[in-house]
Amino acid sequence: MSAQAIATTLLLPPFLLILLCLGAGLAAMRRQRWLGAGVTVATLLILFLATPFAAGHLQASLETGLDTAEGRAAPQAIVVLSADIARGRDGVDMGALTLERLRAGAALHRRTGLPILVTGGSFGPDTPAVADLMARSLSEDFGMQARWVESRALDTHGNAVFSAAMLRADGITDIYLVTHAWHMHRSLEAFARAGLSATPAPVRIDRIPDGGLSDWMPRTDHLNESWLALREWAGRLVYRLRDGPVP
């Protein structure tokens, strides 16, 4: 890791602000020990979650066991889940995560020739359904057509329920499921509850950090990755409590 990269990490948020919070927490311990200790521990946890080491291991904990497709029937279609949107001067478009998934789905279509379903509803009354944006991009950017466009789902549960209804109407019960690796297990469980057999086609399985120097340099993008992983674990717990065990 270059000296310039290290200096950039140390002199920009979150590290610089975290150091200030850590100093404040240590100073507060002299007068109000418990308050100071709480601020110090919270600051250290934020610092840790902002490192590639923490983010990488949290995501790796969600990505195990995705390379086994033994015993599944041959997929009959490809389902691509939406993720985010981006707002710009020209209006609303797909976000980076959605585009990654769509690109992976298009590549899988070229390899297999299977038809594609895109799924994702609207983020608000002033935004189009993400599935409509995905279908348009498939046509304009990838030169292929989505056979099904599911534009009502607001979460992974909805993706599974509404997609399953559309596919079963055409006699399809086995699919490739395209989403990010850290999101795959919750998605597989949701689609199994909806009655579809899904073969995982994960997007971007991340490397597991080896603990080198670069793995301990905190940055805000890694803090976001940690947040996504913790949110995903919480989502899996909520789905399990709300929807019951996977059949």
Description of the molecule:
The protein has helices at 3-11, 15-28, 33-49, 52-60, 96-112, 130-142, 156-169, 181-193, 220-243; strands spanning 77-81, 85-88, 91-94, 116-119, 148-150, 174-180, 197-203. The strands form 2 sheets. A 5-stranded parallel beta sheet has the order 5-4-1-6-7, with helices on both faces. It has a two-stranded antiparallel ribbon with strand order 2-3. The protein is 53% helix and 14% strand. It is built from 9 helices and 7 strands; from the N terminus they run H-H-H-H-E-E-E-H-E-H-E-H-E-H-E-H. The protein starts with a helix and ends with a helix. The protein is elongated, with a radius of gyration of 21 Å. It has 2 domains: 3-62 and 209-234, no CATH class; 77-204, Rossmann fold, CATH 3.40.50.620. It is an alpha/beta fold.
Question: What does the secondary structure layout of this molecule look like, with pairings?
Answer:
Layout: H1 3-11, H2 15-28, H3 33-49, H4 52-60, E1 77-81, E2 85-88, E3 91-94, H5 96-112, E4 116-119, H6 130-142, E5 148-150, H7 156-169, E6 174-180, H8 181-193, E7 197-203, H9 220-243
Parallel strand pairs: 1-4, 1-6, 4-5, 6-7
Antiparallel strand pairs: 2-3
